[in-house]
Design goal:
This protein is an alpha/beta fold. The chain folds into 2 domains: 186 residues, Rossmann fold (3-Layer(aba) Sandwich); 177 residues, 3-Layer(aba) Sandwich (Rossmann fold), CATH 3.40.50.2000. Helix content is 40%, strand content 16%. It is built from 16 helices and 13 strands.
């Protein structure tokens, strides 16, 4: 990383771009960084293609919010270019792949003095699963768009290697920085009251999962594991927080396995921390992850963590199992055993304390400082 940089980044105007404000990790990154930099007296614009989603209410009044209101992709580049030409940002930080592609193409027509930086949120596993020709075209478009970025911030080493391996970007342009996950008011958020009978009764042992209800998140693996646990632990309960098209399939699976009364699938929560605070164990079952914000949230709240050893960030966040357990993808029987071990284990305080300390690396303040270093690079 070059040591040559401007006297102060605060003299710059910063435009952070996300595709929407839905309840995903990238959208949270956009809001967290926008709010933080605005609080530090940056001139910040948060620009989104579709201004909808649960994070909309969390955008600070200090942030200049712009909704392109794009409903059809063919209008995206023209509208984006017109807005960027008007606000003339010094730095553009695009945080998710869909917006990166549009920003890269639009940057062809922007001033050369505008610095464009992309954040890459995930490995290219999803692109690889596309039909052969579609995958080739998509990667070709990515290469063209990412060529115009001054730097690319990968949220994990796995994401970086995926970008390089597919020839999307040169290795010298990629910096690995974890996600800005933990807010400064974490303690206050954890103490928030939630009117939930399972959370309010200490007899229940809560197994928690948080994430959008999508096949790649593989929450069915947790439900299968819990069908075995429920036979051994009558006080155990599963809470899954998230929205998505997979909800009905998960409900049907719970009924099929006879655990529908002890599995609760709840909507997205803008403040999930009270649930972490009451959980006995946190479980992530994804087929792949770009990073894994929810692992950091659980670690910070002192919850024992179990994750699939999937491509992406989890293995790195958990330091190969030093801060939490890893299981093979779809091995629900091993998952069931590790969940039971976490529930009955009395001597895991040392790991929990180490995990809490490790999670602090991903505070918004700490990570925003690392992003700032990249923004300063000449």
């Amino acid at each position: 990383m070059s040591d040559n940089y401007s006297e102060t980044v605060k003299d710059w105007s910063l435009c952070i771009i996300s595709y929407s404000l839905n309840g995903g990790g990238a959208e949270r990154v956009a809001v967290n960084l926008s709010n933080y930099y605005a609080a530090q007296d940056y001139k910040v614009t948060l620009l989104v293609f579709r201004g909808t989603g649960p994070y909309l209410d969390q955008v600070s009044e200090k942030v200049n919010f712009i909704d392109l209101d794009v409903r059809k992709g063919r209008y995206a580049i023209v509208r984006l270019f017109k807005v960027l030409k008007k606000i003339k940002p010094s730095v553009i930080l695009s945080v998710v792949r869909n917006s990166n592609i549009y920003v890269g193409l639009a940057s062809l027509f922007l001033s050369k003095s505008t610095k464009v930086i992309f954040r890459e949120a995930s490995t290219l596993n999803e692109v690889e699963e596309m039909h052969g020709l579609k995958s080739m075209i998509y990667k070709c478009v990515m290469r063209c768009s990412y060529f115009f970025a001054k730097a690319v911030i990968a949220n994990s080493e796995g994401t970086k290697q995926s970008l390089i391996g597919h020839g999307i970007v040169r290795s010298d342009k990629v910096f690995v920085i974890g996600n800005p996950v933990l807010p400064e008011n974490l303690g206050e958020l954890r103490k928030a009251y939630v009117d939930d009978d399972w959370l309010l009764d200490d007899k229940y042992k809560i197994i928690l999962a948080v994430g959008r209800l999508h096949p790649l998140k593989n929450q069915s693996m947790l439900i299968k594991a819990f069908s075995e646990i429920s036979l051994l632990c009558s006080e155990c309960r599963v809470i899954i927080l998230g929205d998505g098209d997979e909800k009905q399939n998960l409900i049907l699976l719970s009924k099929k396995l006879g655990v529908e009364k002890v599995v609760r699938i709840m909507p997205f929560q803008s403040n999930p921390y009270p649930y972490y605070d009451k959980a006995k164990v946190f479980v992530l079952t994804s087929y792949w992850e770009g990073f894994g914000n929810v692992l950091v949230e659980a670690m910070a709240c002192g919850v024992p963590v179990i994750s699939t050893n999937c491509p992406g960030g989890p293995k790195s966040i958990l330091m190969d199992g030093a801060y939490g357990e890893l299981v093979d993808v779809d091995d629900y029987k091993s998952l069931a055993k590790k969940i039971m071990t976490c529930i009955v284990e009395k001597d895991n305080d040392n790991m929990i304390e180490k995990a809490k300390k490790e999670a602090n690396k991903y505070s918004v303040k700490t990570v925003a400082g690392l992003y700032e270093q990249v923004m300063r690079c000449e």
